[in-house]
Amino acid sequence: MAASLLQNPLKTPFSELSIKKQKPCFLKPRHLTITATHPQLQGRKLRAAVIGGGPAGSSAAEALASGGIETFLFERSPSTAKPCGGAIPLCMIDEFSIPLHLIDRHVTKMKIISPSNLTVDFGSKSLRAHEFIPMLRREVLDSFLRTRAQSAGAQLIPSLVTHLEIPSSPFSPYIVHHTINNSRKTLAVDLIIGADGANSKVAKFIKAGNYTCAIAFQERIRLPDEKMEYYQNLAEMYVGDDVSPDFYAWVFPKCDHVAVGTGTVCAKQDIKLYQRGIKERVKNKINGGKVIKVEAHPIPEHPRPIRVRGRVALVGDAAGYVTKCSGEGIYFAAKSGRMCGEAMVRASDGGESMISEDDLKREYLLEWDEKYLSTFRFLDLLQRVFYGSNAAREALVEVCGSEYVQRMTFDSYLYKKLAKGDRLEDLKMVLGTIGSLMRCKIVGRHMEALKL
Amino acid sequence: MSISMASFSPPPTSFSVKPHFTHKSTLFLPLKRPFLFVSTPKVLPDNGARGSASVAAVEDPKPKQPDPVLEEAVEGSSGPKGAATSSEVEVLGKFEDPRWIGGTWDLKQFQKHGSTDWDAVIDAEVRRRKWLQDNPETTSNDNPVVFDTSIIPWWAWMKRFHLPEAELVNGRAAMIGFFMAYLVDSLTGVGLVDQMGNFFCKTLLFVAVVGVLLIRKNEDFDNIKKLIEETTFYDKQWQATWQDDTNSKNN
User: Fold this and answer.
1) Which of A60, A141, A270, A425 could in theory staple to A337 by disulfide, Cβ–Cβ 3.0 to 4.6 A?
2) What catalytic activity is recorded (chain A) (predicted)?
């Protein structure tokens, strides 16, 4: 039985396959039956189009091309600088072999500041000597990943995709209509990976459904040298109703300037007000700086209702893989692109046979959900508990004062693994959190009662 | 009996904490506070010590401005290419209090009968946070705030906030308990001691105690329902892609 499972994974019903993997108990049992056998392609390899050449698209294209599938990477403007915080977790450097000279700054200190200006130093005691948060420029990272995808064998097509024709039979190709140099062209492919970001066209064509977005707004400010010295390797995070009603505001150092910004989901029309709020809060530290750029971008809040349809899969921002609470998306975009590309290679035996929607769901979606759903869930819980009101934010900053909390946070953020902690310390942390929440809630209640 | 009733008043568990948070978050969304552009002059909190007396030991030499100059307040920013610090709203004066020294409350000034008066510290902190909520202050590197609520010992919180509520809940529970015991006795003839021996009565008692803990006001019903919904909502969004198996096949 086990031998036949290995030889013909495509022919066995889903329920038997799942026994091999550790099925987490929160997933309801699913029934995917693969009824048709897939034909071998006669004399050609599978063709795949990756639409969108950011971290997600480039990683997907690299995985596909290295696996032996003929890959076309579409990117409409390869040289734009994307509005982004630019922070990546440490594990991404190893996992994606990112050369260290691309990193602009090594952030080793973080400050988190509460509405009442209680400041907690995050990292001075709890970061180990070799640990830091790398900050990069998106255009530098993106072009590196794209070049690497090209050297793996993907063909970069610098054009804008305008239309996607969905085929009627499970074996006919998808037709990608694109415009390059003012001339319209078409390309026939068997598989599509949609990695075109928050306003994904691919998602629209496959009717993947919508998601709520937060808006992130930031200004890049060039500071005088002595002010820039303060932000040498320090990033700041501000919470409070004056800077964001349901998210946080930040000051992140970049190559030779700082990015001061904020975000919100529910109050998008007031974003300028919140931006003013954060600039007021850091007024002394950015005094004399000049705004060199203003940018804004939507950030998805949760995954789309459909992430795989037919032989089209969504990855990265297009699928909605952005964590709540921290708004981190670069790592998950690159990782999902790579996992999807590898899934396609696996399911098609290196580009030899056609694959179906069920293959994609099993090899890509299931793996992804198993690996990261608990992380996303946990961050959603944190956001709901701690970002709801000023009292909760005060409690958050208080809780972050504990060295154990800081260590756990860094372990999970930098290495993307559920940090194994000491049971007793965990219990103390939970009790401390509940205590802080209760105390700050009491203070908050009395603040309400106080009429000025 | 009273001892066992007293033991049924644990501190508000996380159940009661969370509904208030989610309740508050939905309350605050429509009530966006116009925090900077209110045209009426802000009244300083009614603390006699904070008059026009000069404040000792405040390192930042910013003068207080009781009547803020707000005519220069502009709705939007003065153009994205302008300097980051434009001549906009004057800061309405920092929070100042003679007992707030070096970013924390000077506990020596809160002495009453030889020991610290924690209630006064709590009140002072409430006023400070309220002031800051309405007039957000610039952070400064030289004057960091280091006061957090964990400096106040747990028993001070307990004495002031938990015990009165516990007394109330226990009192209500005792009255209801006495009345229900009497009612059951008069209806069924089963005396109090025999009631305690009966499994059904014990279950009812358990349900009543749990109910009193979780549901203190009428709004708590809705809060708990909403909390359960919210907790599972994100998960539902993730599972949505698996739910639509049948729809996609008919596509």
Assistant:
1) A60
2) phytyl diphosphate + 3 NADP(+) = geranylgeranyl diphosphate + 3 NADPH + 3 H(+)
Surface of A (107-136) touching B: CB under 8 A: 113, 115-119
Q: Which chain B residue shows the shortest CA-CA distance from A374?
A: B235
The tens digit of pLDDT for each residue in A247-279 reads 999 999 988 899 999 999 988 899 999 999 999
Burial of residue A329 (CB within 10 Å: 0-12, 13-18, 19+) is buried
Q: Give residue A331's Cα distance to chain centre.
A: 5
Rounded mean pLDDT of A386-397?
A: 90
B81, B84, B239 member nearest A286 (Cβ): B84
Calculate how close chain A gets to B159, using CA atoms only, in Å: 13
Whether A202 maps to a domain, the answer reads: yes
A216 to chain B, any CB pair closer than 8 A? The answer is: no
- Is residue A396, in this structure, part of any structural domain at all? no
Q: Taking CA atoms, what residue in A is nearest to B95? A: A116
* Chain-centroid distance, C-alpha B133: 14
Provide the residue type at B4 as one letter. Answer: S
Cβ atoms of A328 and A322 closer than 8 Å? yes
Q: Hey, what are A384's tokens?
A: 């709901």
Taking an 8 Å cut-off on Cβ atoms, the answer to whether A443 and B149 are in contact is yes
Nearest-CA neighbor of A213 among A247, A252, A164, A260?
Answer: A247
Q: What is the pLDDT of residues A280-295, one digit of tens each?
A: 999 888 888 999 999 9
User: pLDDT above 70 covers what percent of chain A?
Assistant: 90
pTM comes to 0.76
Q: Does A440 touch chain B (CB under 8 A)?
A: yes
Which positions 48-87 of A are in contact with B (Cβ < 8 Å)?
none
Distance from CA of B45 to the nearest CA of A (A): 6
Who contacts A406 (Cβ-Cβ below 8 Å, separation ≥6)? A122, A123, A125, A126, A400
Taking contacts as CB-CB distances below 8 angstroms, the residues of chain B near A243 are 136
A225 located within any domain: no
A380 domain residue, yes or no: yes
Instruction: With a cut of 70, say whether residue A3 has pLDDT above it.
Output: no
| Closest to B133 (Cα-Cα) out of A399, A450, A285 | A450
Domain hosting A337: range is 43-81+139-210+305-384
A213-222 sheet: strands from edge to edge:
A119-122, A109-113, A234-240, A244-253, A258-264, A213-222, A290-300
Query: Each residue of B97-132: pLDDT tens digit?
Result: 888 888 888 888 888 888 888 888 888 888 888 888
Q: Which residue among B129, B139, B149 places its CB closest to the CB of A282?
A: B139
Q: Which string of b and e fits A88-102 if b means at least 16 CB within 10 Å?
A: bbbebeeebebeeee
Which CATH number covers residue A348? 3.50.50.60
ipTM: 0.73
From chain B, the residues in CB contact with A230 under 8 A are 141
Q: How many domains does chain A have?
A: 1
Chain B residues closer than 8 Å to A361 by CB? 242
Nearest CB to B17 within list A282, A437, A447: A437
